[in-house]
C-alpha cells in the first residue's frame, strides 16, 4: 500500500472492503470476530482519512452443512440461518463493528445476481457438464486432492475423514485461466498480501489448475442452476458473489450492472488464510470469465489457535467472544487481538497475557496519564486550559517525537500492519508519561510563580498528547477514544467529525474546560487479586464484574 500523505480530501472512488461471509453452520466465535474487528479498524482508519468507505460483511447460508445443522436443531434451513445470522449481527453490534452493509446469501436479490453471473460465465463457454469422482470434505465444502490429506484421508483443517463421492456436475473451466492468473500474480505483486501468501498462491497456480465443479446434485438447500433445477449452485460459487450483491442499494433492481456501478471493484478482501485459494485463485478466474474487474487486494491473515490448532466451528475448540466481551468490554477485546497478533501471522490467546497487555497499555499508559493530568488541572487550574497547545509547546522534543510517531502509525495502518500501528500509538503514550515524570508539574505548582505557569503549560502539552492518542487509536478502540475525547471537553459530534489531519499538534485551545476527571479504562483485576477497596471478595461473591466500568478503579494520583 502507499506511503502517500494522509490527506483529509474526499476521494471520489470509495474504499470498499469485505470480511469473509461467515458460514452459518454454527454461531460466531473469536476467530470470526477477529477478521471482523481487523476489517473494522481498517474501515475506521480509511474514514479518518476522509475516504468514502463501503464496509461489507455478512453470512454465507447455503449448502449441505447448513441443511445438516438445521436438521440437527429440528428447524428449516431458513429458520436456522435467520437465528445464526442474527447472532452474527448482534455480536458485531457488541464489538462496535461499523459495517455499512450486511449481506445474507439467502436474500432473494442475491439469488438474482448469482443466476445472472452464472449465465454470463455459461455464455462465455466456461461451464460444462461431466462426471466427477473425488474425496469430499463437507466441512470445507470442497473436493480435496489426496496429496493434501492426512492419514486415512482426513482433512488437515477439520481432522475429519473426506468421503468418496461421485456426481454428475457442472464444471467451471478454471484451467483456461492458468496463464492469465500467472500473469496477474506476476504483474500485481500486491494482489495477494502478505507477500509470503503470494508465494503460496503462485505455488498452487504453477502446480496446474484443475476445473472445479460448481453444482451439486445432492444438495437441495442452494440456488437452483439456471436451466437445470435438479442441481443447485456450489456454495462457494454462490458465496463469493455475495460481495457483488452487497453493493446493491435498498430497493434497487437486482442486476449485475446496478451492483457493479456502486463501488466495484473491491479495494480489499480481508480473509483468513484458510480460504485464500477461493479468493485468490477461483474468484479472480470467475470474474475474468464474466468480464468483471478484479479486486485490488486479497489479504490472508493468520489463525487464532488453541493448542496449535486453528480455532474453528467444526473442531469446536473456540473461544467465546460474548464471554470476553462481558468480562472485559469491547475496547479491551479489540485492542488485545489487534495489538498482540501480528497481522498476517497466527496467534494464541492466553488470559494472563490479555490482562497484562490491556492493563499495561490501556489502563496505565493511556488511562492513568489522562486521569492524573486532569486531576492536577482540576486541583490547580479549575479544569480549564490556560494556553493553546500550539503556544504551550514551542519547540519541545516531545512535539516532534509525537509528530514522527503519528506518521509512523499512519503508514502502519495504510500497510495493514495493525499491531505496529498500535505500538506506535502506545509509544506516544510512553513519551507523554516520560514528559510528565521528568517535568513533575505537581511539584512545580507547589513552587508557584513562573514554575506554576510552566506546570500549567506542561498539563496542556500532556493533554494535547492524549488528544492525539485518542484519534490515532480510535480505529482500534472507538469507545475508549470517545471517552478520552469527552474527558477533554469535546462533544460526541466533535468526536465524530475528527479526521486524521486532527492528529496535528495544536488542537487544544486556551479556555477549553475539561470534564470531571474519571478513569476512562477500568484496570482488570485478576481472580483473587487484592482489590483497591480492601482485600479479596468474600466467598461466593463473583470476583469479576462486567466491563467496562471506568469509575471502578481510580489510579493513584501523583
Ligand atoms: N481461528 C481463526 N482465526 C482467525 N480467523 C478465523 C478463525 N476461524 C475463522 N476465522 C475467520 O472466519 C473465516 C472462515 O469462516 P467460517 O464461517 O468458515 O468459520 P470457521 O470457524 O473457520 O468454520 P469451520 O471450522 O467450520 O471451518 C476465516 O477465513 C477467517 O476469516
UniProtKB/TrEMBL annotation:
- Keyword field: Aminoacyl-tRNA synthetase, ATP-binding, Ligase, Nucleotide-binding, Protein biosynthesis
Residue intervals of the Methionyl/Leucyl tRNA synthetase domain: 149-374
Q: Does the keyword Cell cycle apply?
A: no
Q: Which GO terms describe its biological process?
A: methionyl-tRNA aminoacylation; plant ovule development
Task: Quote a single Gene Ontology cellular component term.
Answer: mitochondrion
Chemical reaction(s) catalysed: tRNA(Met) + L-methionine + ATP = L-methionyl-tRNA(Met) + AMP + diphosphate
Q: Which InterPro entries match?
A: Anticodon_Met, Met-tRNA_synth, Met-tRNA_synth_2, Methionyl/Leucyl_tRNA_Synth, MetRS_core, Rossmann-like_a/b/a_fold, tRNAsynth_Ia_anticodon-bd
| Alphabetized Gene3D superfamilies for the sequence | 2.170.220.10, HUPs, Isoleucyl-tRNA Synthetase, Domain 1
UniProt EC number: 6.1.1.10
Top EC class, one word: ligase
What family does this belong to?
Belongs to the class-I aminoacyl-tRNA synthetase family.
Q: Which NCBIfam families match?
A: metG, PRK12267.1
Q: What protein am I looking at?
A: methionine--tRNA ligase
The scientific name of the source species is Amborella trichopoda
Instruction: Recall the taxonomic lineage recorded for the source organism.
Output: Eukaryota, Viridiplantae, Streptophyta, Embryophyta, Tracheophyta
Amino acid at each position: 500500500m502507499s506511503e502517500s500523505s494522509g490527506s483529509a480530501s474526499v476521494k471520489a472512488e470509495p474504499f470498499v472492503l469485505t470480511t469473509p461471509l461467515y458460514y452459518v453452520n454454527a454461531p460466531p466465535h473469536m476467530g470470526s470476530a477477529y477478521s471482523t474487528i481487523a476489517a473494522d479498524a481498517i474501515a475506521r482508519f480509511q474514514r479518518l482519512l476522509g475516504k468514502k468507505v463501503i464496509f461489507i460483511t455478512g453470512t454465507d447460508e447455503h449448502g449441505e452443512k447448513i441443511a445438516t445443522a438445521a436438521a440437527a436443531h429440528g428447524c428449516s434451513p431458513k429458520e436456522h440461518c435467520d437465528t445464526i445470522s442474527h447472532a452474527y449481527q448482534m455480536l458485531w453490534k457488541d464489538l462496535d463493528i461499523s459495517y455499512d452493509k450486511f449481506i445474507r446469501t439467502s436474500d432473494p436479490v442475491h439469488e438474482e445476481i448469482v443466476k445472472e453471473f452464472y449465465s454470463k460465465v455459461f455464455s462465455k463457454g466456461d461451464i460444462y457438464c461431466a462426471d466427477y469422482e473425488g474425496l469430499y470434505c463437507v466441512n470445507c465444502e470442497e473436493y480435496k486432492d489426496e496429496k493434501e490429506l492426512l492419514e486415512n484421508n482426513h482433512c488437515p483443517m477439520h481432522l475429519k475423514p473426506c468421503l468418496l463421492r461421485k456426481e454428475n456436475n457442472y464444471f467451471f473451466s478454471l484451467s483456461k485461466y492458468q496463464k492469465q492468473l500467472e500473469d496477474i500474480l506476476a504483474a500485481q505483486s500486491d494482489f495477494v498480501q502478505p507477500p509470503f501468501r503470494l508465494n503460496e498462491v503462485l505455488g498452487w497456480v504453477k502446480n496446474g489448475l484443475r476445473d472445479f465443479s460448481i453444482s451439486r446434485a445432492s444438495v437441495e438447500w442452494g440456488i437452483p442452476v439456471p436451466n437445470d433445477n435438479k442441481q443447485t449452485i456450489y456454495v462457494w460459487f454462490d458465496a463469493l458473489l455475495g460481495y457483488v450483491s452487497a453493493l446493491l442499494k435498498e430497493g434497487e433492481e437486482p442486476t449485475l450492472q446496478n451492483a457493479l456501478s456502486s463501488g466495484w471493484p473491491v479495494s480489499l478482501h480481508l480473509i483468513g488464510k484458510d480460504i485464500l485459494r477461493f479468493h485468490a485463485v477461483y474468484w479472480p478466474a470467475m470474474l475474468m470469465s464474466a468480464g468483471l474487474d478484479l479486486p485490488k487486494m486479497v489479504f490472508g491473515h493468520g489463525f487464532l489457535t488453541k493448542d496449535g490448532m486453528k480455532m474453528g466451528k467444526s473442531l469446536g475448540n473456540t473461544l467465546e467472544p460474548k464471554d470476553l466481551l462481558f468480562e472485559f468490554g469491547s475496547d479491551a477485546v479489540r485492542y488485545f487481538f489487534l495489538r498482540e497478533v501480528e497481522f498476517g501471522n497466527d496467534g494464541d490467546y492466553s488470559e494472563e497475557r490479555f490482562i497484562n497487555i490491556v492493563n499495561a497499555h490501556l489502563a496505565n499508559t493511556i488511562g492513568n496519564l489522562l486521569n492524573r493530568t486532569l486531576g492536577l488541572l482540576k486541583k490547580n487550574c479549575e479544569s480549564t486550559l490556560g494556553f493553546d497547545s500550539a503556544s504551550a509547546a514551542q519547540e519541545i522534543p516531545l512535539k516532534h517525537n509525537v509528530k514522527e510517531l503519528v506518521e509512523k502509525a499512519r503508514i502502519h495502518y495504510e500497510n495493514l500492519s495493525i499491531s505496529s500501528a498500535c505500538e506506535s500509538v502506545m509509544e506516544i503514550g510512553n513519551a507523554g508519561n516520560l514528559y510528565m515524570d521528568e517535568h513533575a508539574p505537581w511539584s512545580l505548582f507547589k513552587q508557584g510563580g513562573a514554575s506554576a505557569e510552566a506546570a500549567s503549560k506542561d498539563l496542556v502539552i500532556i493533554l494535547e498528547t492524549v488528544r492525539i492518542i485518542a484519534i490515532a487509536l480510535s480505529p482500534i478502540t472507538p469507545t475508549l477514544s470517545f471517552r478520552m475525547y469527552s474527558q477533554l471537553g469535546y462533544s460526541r459530534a466533535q468526536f465524530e467529525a475528527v479526521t486524521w489531519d486532527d492528529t496535528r499538534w495544536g488542537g487544544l485551545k486556551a479556555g477549553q474546560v475539561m470534564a470531571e476527571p474519571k478513569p476512562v479504562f477500568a484496570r482488570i483485576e485478576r481472580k483473587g487479586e487484592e482489590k483497591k477497596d480492601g482485600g479479596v471478595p468474600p466467598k461466593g461473591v463473583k470476583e469479576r464484574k462486567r466491563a467496562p466500568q471506568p469509575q471502578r478503579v481510580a489510579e493513584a494520583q501523583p
